Amino acid sequence: MDSNLPEPGQIVIVRQRPFVVNDIETSTLPLPSSVQDQSTRQHLLRLSSMEDEGLGEELSVVWELEPGVACLDRAQLPALKGFDSPRMFDAFLHAVEWGAVSSADDKALQAPFRSGADVDDYQLDPIVRALTMPRVNLLVADDVGLGKTIEAGLVAQELILRHRVRSILIVCPSSIQVQWKEEMRDKFGLEFRIIDSALFADLRRRRGIHVNPWEHFPRLITSIDFLKRERPMRLFRETLPAGDQPSFPRPYDLLIVDEAHNVAPSGRGKYATDSQRTTAVRTLTPYFEHKLFLSATPHNGYSESFSALLELLDNQRFARAVPPNKTQLEAVMVRRMKSELELRWDGSLT
Q1: Which residue segment(s) compose the domain that 324 sits in?
Q2: Which runs of E-coded beta strand occur in 27-66?
Q3: In sequence order, which residues have a C-beta less than 8 Å from that of residue 55 and are 6 or more positions away?
Q4: How far is Cα 215 from Cα 156, in angstroms, rounded to an integer?
Q5: How does pLDDT run across 279-338, given as a tens digit for each residue?
Q6: Which one, of 292, 273, 334, 345, lies nearest residue 146 by Cα?
Q7: Are residues 301 and 178 part of one domain?
Q8: Which residues pair with 19 in a beta bridge?
Q9: Please, are residues 18 and 51 in contact by the beta-carbon 8 Å criterion?
Q10: Is the peptide bond before 232 cis (omega within 30 degrees of 0)?
Q11: Among 45, 207, 270, 319, which is most buried by a count of CB atoms within 10 Å?
């Protein structure tokens, strides 16, 4: 470690946290006549956080005046001492080819082989369907117990491997937040943070009262009842583009809504009334590139309510108060019942 002036792209430790140097600007103020050494000039460094919970955080410091700074030793490639055998190089190329995923090839799936889940054949349907969509808008309405969480994890992991998704927000009932976090970590190696009042308080204590938790981790889980509150929604709106700023590309990537029937408008005969949950999700959906809704009971018996739910998912295909076209519905909805699936020899589902 040393405290010399770093270079752009180098990793530095500032205020006990790792940052990468984006840019260095040398002071243009004239030096005193008694100082001839140009190296005594001060430098303004623009930094970006490297921490997962510091996603998008930037910092500008005057390097010579900032206390306790350090830059990591410059790394370099090892010295070339010889060549590997052709057999080893061929094995390396095969490993690279196997591990690479092309966005243009929608038939080579990687997520099922990289996950720690026991994937059944029918659970591949949503991921195959998602890869054929330029923008993923899927309603997974499988029967209870068919593994909608695993299907959502497969879709998310495949999109991450193809560099189509980085930021993910999972909205679910508060009672299953921990279950979602553990499933994503244990079966797909994806770390999520549960965003709630405790996280708000912890970040404010460690980072200051003006911190915005929505900007501090790329993968988040929150409950619909927490999201609909005034303060969390106000802080989320602060991360969105202002009225005079372009809204494309969208600032967020993938929105997963579990138990999506809970956010559907309440059906009352020929009318559907938006609840606070509906309003909260309606605020989110325009700013996510991809949307994945999960529900074992998407239709509550009211056509108005169902069409309004479909409009939240894809407002280009569906409109409120308009009966959904069957062809368009089949394009975005995956639904299987337990009775439709064959059983294995031991009585479990295939």
Answers
A1: 105-340
A2: 43-49, 58-62
A3: 49, 167, 215, 216, 217, 218
A4: 20
A5: 999 999 999 999 999 999 988 778 888 999 999 999 999 998 888 999 999 999 999 888
A6: 334
A7: yes
A8: 12, 49
A9: yes
A10: no
A11: 45
> Looking at the domain assignment, is residue 35 inside a domain?
no
Helix (H, G, I), strand (E, B) or coil at 198: helix
Total domains in the chain come to 2
DSSP 66: S
**What is residue 269's predicted lDDT score, i.e. its pLDDT?**
58
Clarify whether residues 48 and 123 are in a common domain: no
What SS3 state is found at 170?
strand
> What CATH number should be reported for the domain holding residue 136?
3.40.50.10810
Does residue 265 have a cis peptide bond before it, meaning omega lies within 30 degrees of 0? no
Question: Which residue reads 């059906």 in tokens?
Answer: 267
Place of tokens 């530095």: 12
Together in a domain, 24 and 111: no
| Same-domain status, 55 and 109 | no
Tokens standing for residue 203:
């970040």
Q: What angle do CA 46, 48, 51 make, to 5 degrees?
A: 150
Q: Which of these, 345, 333, 330, lies nearest to 292 by C-alpha position?
A: 333
Residue 318 to residues 231, 235, 283, 324, Cα–Cα distance (Å): 31, 29, 17, 6
> Distance (Å, rounded) from C-alpha 248 to C-alpha 64?
39
State how far the alpha carbon of 118 is from the alpha carbons of 101, 133, 157, 187, 190, in Å: 21, 25, 15, 9, 17
**Can you give the pTM of this predicted structure?**
0.77
Please indicate, yes or no, whether residues 168 and 303 belong to a single structural domain of this protein.
yes
CA angle 293, 114, 290 (to 5 degrees): 25
Q: Is 51 within a domain?
A: yes
Comparing C-alpha atoms, which of 261, 267, 263 is closest to residue 297? 261
Joined together, the tokens standing for residue 255 give: 């929105």
The tens digit of pLDDT for each residue in 115-150 reads 988 898 899 999 999 999 999 999 999 999 899 999
